[in-house]
Amino acid sequence: MDKFAVLGCGVVGSGVVELFEKNKALIEKRSGRKLEMAYILDLRDFPDRPYGSKVVKSIDTILADPEVTVVAECMGGIEPAFTFVKACLEAGKSVATSNKELVAAKGDILLQTAKDHHCNFFFEASVGGAIPIIRPLHKCLAANDFSAIAGILNGTTNFILGKMITADMDFASALALAQEKGYAEKDPTADVEGHDACRKICILSSLAFGKHVYPESVHTKGIREVELKDVKLCMQLGYAIKLIARVQRLENGKILPTVMPMAVADDNLLSDVNGVYNAVMVRGDGISKAMFYGRGAGKFPTASAVLGDMIEEVQLSDTIPAQTWENVGSADFIEDFSQFSAERYFRTSAANAEALTEVFGEGVSEILTMDDHESVFTVAREMNVTEVEDAVKALSAKGIRVLAEYPILQP
Amino acid sequence: MDKFAVLGCGVVGSGVVELFEKNKALIEKRSGRKLEMAYILDLRDFPDRPYGSKVVKSIDTILADPEVTVVAECMGGIEPAFTFVKACLEAGKSVATSNKELVAAKGDILLQTAKDHHCNFFFEASVGGAIPIIRPLHKCLAANDFSAIAGILNGTTNFILGKMITADMDFASALALAQEKGYAEKDPTADVEGHDACRKICILSSLAFGKHVYPESVHTKGIREVELKDVKLCMQLGYAIKLIARVQRLENGKILPTVMPMAVADDNLLSDVNGVYNAVMVRGDGISKAMFYGRGAGKFPTASAVLGDMIEEVQLSDTIPAQTWENVGSADFIEDFSQFSAERYFRTSAANAEALTEVFGEGVSEILTMDDHESVFTVAREMNVTEVEDAVKALSAKGIRVLAEYPILQP
Predict the structure, then answer these.
(1) How high is the pLDDT of residue B361?
(2) Which one of A208, A307, B116, B171 has the lowest number of neighbouring Cβ atoms within 10 Å?
(3) Claim to verify: residue B289 and residue B149 sit in the same structural domain
(4) Most A-contacting residue of B6, B28, B30, B278 (CB-CB within 10 A), to test interface
């Protein structure tokens, strides 16, 4: 008999308990073990729920029970989650977490702690909710040298951008609707400013390239400044504006993680990922590319991922070497954002084909000009940040203002 | 030091050897082991290749070396692959295979043999090439009660149907092009008649529901009869005709696996899976739905999946309980195709709204009528096989012939 414990009985934690009880027979068959959901750590009591009697108030109760082999952390935030998870790992109990903030900030320490105590720290639920992505990366694709990962990793911003496209709403109205539907929090900063997506791309980057990438090292831009006008004009040019969390390995061997709104071509599957769904595209030298798609959040989708981790952990007798990364003590392996290079979408105050060709050289697409003379076009040539700045200045000297600019996601 | 061996040095086998040698340092780090590609079993010699000296002619050489812990089977076909794989497993050597025919026909026996000898029989490469789907199903999604799986699992037919859509080619011309490009074999029967997709849905059904589903139990219809006319008319109604391999669990608890061309609505991501790509949509009570997308075949994509299996197998000390299924000795758990039910697309010899409403009741869509009076429409009401037959007869009595009919994939 192995015992499970759950830390935090909020949306995800209660989902873990309920999904486990619902599918217990199936889960026991698949894990080859007898299992019991033994403890739920929460400050609150839940007398009316069937699992009310399992609620405990102190982590020590869980730590003291040697039959507890696997613990789910569903509290969120860094403390006390970090202290509790570390204590569990030090007691040789494997941990599965849905807490991306914890993994992005403390993953290196917790992975090392797990290794030192021959147990595992898993976090499939921390990126992409229900989507299997962590295990595919380090197991199924373990023979690949990865070159890029790009994903829609935040359902809230994807819902907002989708409403701007389909319902002609501006950012503020779409955000208000997301809040009304419960997809965005009252303080939407973490989602809207890209911090949530940033934590997730940190986790994927760390796993794919083996070195801890901290959120501070990632150029992060949210969607607050995305204008309805550009969303609609991009559509006319065959692109959807999406908040893309991405990491690429450059020719110099460094990696470049970014979070920012990008123009995604209509023939890229990521452009069709709508509403609160998430998707991750992975490129490697063996697979070429693969995509993973599913619900990015929600009670049972996230619980499904946490339980999937717990079911594997209970069967393992030692740490999995591939599911880890190191703290290399510097960020030298991360390239500066100034080196970020991409094809671009531009909106300018006037169309002047001659001036544009002079500034951009070859690669300027057909120019779409509106009644107010504003014009949009794409440049089919990779431009880095300095080149864009230079182009903005050169256009300015010709009396043309750049009103908006988006990098285009390479296919 | 663990030694790997590869059986069969064709496209996939040579890919396994080459990708391993290319990424050996990475693979050793991720697996936490020193590894050597020690033997390649093939009747041919490869004196000009860097691994030429590793070629052996007898399986006994591999069986006799106790340092060989993991073997890749990339020969294809049932014999001698079955005999060789079984012998490896009996010697306690885990096996990874790309051979869907072997898994669909003999998976139950080989999984039991692996269990008896405390090793593993893995087959990630047998379905969807590079796409991680086997491990996500039994590991990441292990807490889910599955209700349906639907996929585009054959790249050749998907390429052909795609050319019919985008290049206005009829079936015969598109097949000829696929053969010219090397996507279809000279004898295209296994792809075109749906046998290849059938083997793959057998494997996914067996894994998801725990009981071996043999190809003979699956209603399988290929794409040879798909007319360009219907491909184009479906498009006008907002659907793409795709060869869909599918299994659903019915309310009576039985499962119903099918392979057949179906109409897939434009807002379903599967409708955007083009060319030689594959994709699998999975439904479960925890995740709601998730999709996996990638290259369905090819040297390195398939090799990537085989190596991913080998890298995990070398780290395992016993059989994984979830990655298995049983032979239950009967096909009673499989529902008869007569119970298959879906909304439908119809093409008829004439439009007669009154007659159609009389026959189908509510749910007939707007009718699209062509110059030759042929008409297409959908029926938004699930109809089983008998109901379709009855409708065909009833229309016939009114002088209207049904010229084509496709079930619509539910979202």
Answers:
(1) 86
(2) B116
(3) yes
(4) B30
pLDDT in tens, B347-360: 999 888 889 989 99
Number of structural domains, chain A? Answer: 3
Q: Which residue is catalytic, options A54, A106, A200, A211?
A: A200
For residues A207 and A138, the answer to whether their CB atoms sit within 8 Å is: yes
Mean pLDDT of chain A: 96
Does B320 fall in a domain?
no
**Percentage of the residues of chain B whose pLDDT score is greater than 90:** 93
Q: What is the phi/psi pair of residue B216, to 5°? A: -65, -20
Residue B184: C-alpha distances to residues A211, B9, B173, B180, B303 (Å): 43, 21, 12, 8, 20
Q: What's the CATH number where B164 sits?
A: 3.30.360.10
Same domain, B153 and B18: no
Q: How many residues does chain B have?
A: 411
- Identify which of A182-191, B115-124, B346-355 has the greatest average pLDDT: B115-124
pTM over 0.90: yes
Under the banding of pLDDT at 50, 70 and 90, the label for residue A43 is: very high
Q: Could you tell me the two tokens for A127?
A: 């990126």
Looking at the structure, tell me whether residues B159 and B111 fall in a common domain.
no
Q: Which value does ipTM take for this structure?
A: 0.94
**Residue of B106, B163, B200, B242 marked catalytic:** B200
The rounded distance, in Å, linking the Cα atoms of A193 and A287 is 32
Domain contains B319? no
Question: Residues 6 or more apart from A69 whose CB is under 8 A from it?
Answer: A2, A3, A93, A94, A313, A314
Tokens of A78: 């860094």
pLDDT given at position B351: 82
Same domain, yes or no, for B279 and B150? Answer: yes
Do A307 and A384 lie in one domain? The reply is: no
